Amino acid sequence: MPESDFDRLINYQISPKENAFLDLKAKQIVTDTDPAPVIDMLSVKYRTKKSFLDHFTSLHMVVPTLRCNSNCRYCQVSRKDPEASGCDMNKKTAKKIVDLIFCSPSAFIKIEIQGGEALLNFEMVKYIFEYAEWLNIFKKKHLEFVVCTNLTLINRNILKYFKEHHIYVSTSLDGYKDLHNKNRPLQNTDNSYDVFQSNLALCREHLGNDGVSALMTTSKSSLGHFREIIDEYIKHGFSSIFLRSLNPFGFAKQYRDDVGYGVDEFLENYIEALDYILEINLNGRYFVELSATLFLRRILTPFSTGFVDLQSPAGTAINGVIYNYDGNVYVSDEARMLASMGDNKFLMGNVHKKSYRELFDSDFLHTLIGTSCVEFLPDCCDCAFQSYCGADPVRNYSEQGDIVGDRTTSEFCKKNKTIISHLLKLIRKNDEHINKVFWAWINRQPELLKVAQKQL
Amino acid sequence: MGTIFSRGDHFLVTESKSKNGYAALLSKGEIANASVPTVCNIQCLGELNEGDIVQIEPNGMVNVLYEAQSPHNVLMLTERCNSSCIMCPQPKVAAEQDKTPLNLKLISWMDKKTRSLGLTGGEPTLLGDKLVDILLACKKTLPKTALNLLTNAIRFEDLAYAQKIAAIGHPDLMIDVPLYGATDTEHNEIVGSNSFYKTIRGLYNLAFFRQKIGIRVVIHKANYKRLPQLAEFIYRNFPFVFHIAFMQMEPTGLARKNIEQLWIDPYDYNAELKEAVDSLFDRNMNVSIYNTQLCVLPVSLRKFAKQSISSWKNIYIDECSDCAVRQQCAGFFESSRDLHSTHIKATGADHRAVACLSQKT
Questions:
Q1: Which of these CATH numbers, 3.20.20.70, 3.40.50.2300, 3.30.2420.10, 1.20.1250.20, describes A54-350?
Q2: pLDDT tens for residues B63-99?
Q3: Are B282 and A303 in contact (CB < 8 Å)?
Q4: Contact B233, A45 (CB under 8 A)
Q5: Which of A351, A356, B126, B357 makes the best surface tag, with the fewest CB within 10 Å?
């Protein structure tokens, strides 16, 4: 809003018939008539934005083993060697976990298996999914299955199994060959890239292009190379990328000099990459940046979004939860990483010792969630970007020492603010081609790009 | 395929011969010594088809109430209205004889193969429970007919009434609600009553019961400027609507009376219309443009244009006789014969304009 209009508005000098006033009235920001029906409309929209709460816990991450055959430089899960013992889930624990998963009132349940390298304990992976399918005959929920894997142990039998049980594959691709090999070497070879490439093709053969998705993790070596990383993704036929920054947890903290970087460096690279991706789309190729799309959904649509790490109230346990190989339950993946370093602050309990209610209706959880709403957190409560952002108490605790956190020095806050500002700048351009790209991403409609192209 | 019918329930259309048993006779020529009401020397009798329903007035006027072959059949449920829209083509009455018994009869006579039936007025919800009766009758005797109810939704502010309509469980009912502005300031000025928030509550209540809702926007001088803001308002607040229609104004009735305040050449609001339509289309909403001539629209908008004008008032003008896309064009209202865009121009068999139409979504 032009400053002159704003000044007149706050001094009650604006006419309620002016466009500037009518625009704000249409958005329910001001009114010159009875506020009750306006508040009514706002409450409908507010309820819609918070409807992710209706489902309660829908994302359930399960860790069947800590054993891993990779040697990723920034690993945060305190992985063990492939032959290690004492870090695998047993059937009794797996059964208890799946029983608890189905205690969630959510009609949508996503079971995401991670590790270590999950496929090192494929028997347990199968057991978990099959027991879940069995229970679902009675529970009749909408189920989604995902396995996170480095693809090294994939073979046709496993893929046939995945296809039969509608299991999606999520994998990691950090970039072009040298970069990927540098970040994510395997324990028995330096050329993890070649193994990845051929196994990806095998996956696609059985599961189709959409059956496999990839995400990248940014290490120090990735900086300055985002364009090449994006080109690599396109080369491999991926239609989306999630430009993820490193969480300073787990092993990564110990290797900070080696792989770490500041938020400013990340942001510089991210913004440049986003502009590059936008250019790719404007030239007619559909390719989505997923973290930007999340923010765009929050800014441009009236709907709720399900990203557990950035919700208000925080999604810890009430949106997404993680069950470790030993039956310990944590409020988030980051919380599990903290525990592996010796800090059990966010341990909810163990599946063998506590009931569903004791785990999910505990005083501990109530306090944690109750302290994690941007609507009243310091600085967040006054922030113009409040409705696009969220709280991450575990990160606050890990980076700054307490779950409330201090926004003035928070890298997490700086990152979100910068990305949101940049997106708002692009939206404000009101360029019809950029708008079409954003909407193509938001609604997953590549065809919209073709319409934009035709009109050019 | 013969169906057994009772002659006493039917009118016979005949050249000149009289036959016994029919309720009335309609003829192109003369018929002597008829024992039932007879109307002679009717022109355009050839336009009537088997299954059509006509009403014969005492003065011999024959009104066609229903055409079995037409996709544009409409039932006038009432001429009373609780709005006073400045561009209303159907002037309202304060009091009237209840049309429901006649309408129920019409429904019972209609061909079961009727694809769609409009329910309009005035304001249909003023019938209260009788509207429910009408809908139930349609569901029972015309189960395969899609219904399109036009209403300002004000009465649906009452949740119980919205529930009554929903409880009918009609298999194919679309409820179309007009919205003329993104604020009460703009909308109420046009509908002549303080009903903006009531209509909105009505929309919410219908959505609560998962009814299929459409929004209609008639465009004229008083509201074209803020059409893009209205489009955004619709998306942000009613993303659940099934369809949005932007409509060219019919310059008859009150619209003709208020023409100074309302008339704008539709060509002159194309920029605002394009912004509004594009923004809704980008947001994956279902959009159409009604009552608009293809030549008036920018090429990129033509795929949204629908042939929406009821056949009985649908005309084309001289300029249209050589137009290559006349078949796909909505044409004009009868009342637009003397008042329409100055940009009407026949399209030659020009590739670009014709090709774009074959890509209709």
A1: 3.20.20.70
A2: 888 888 888 899 999 999 999 999 999 888 989 999 9
A3: no
A4: no
A5: A356
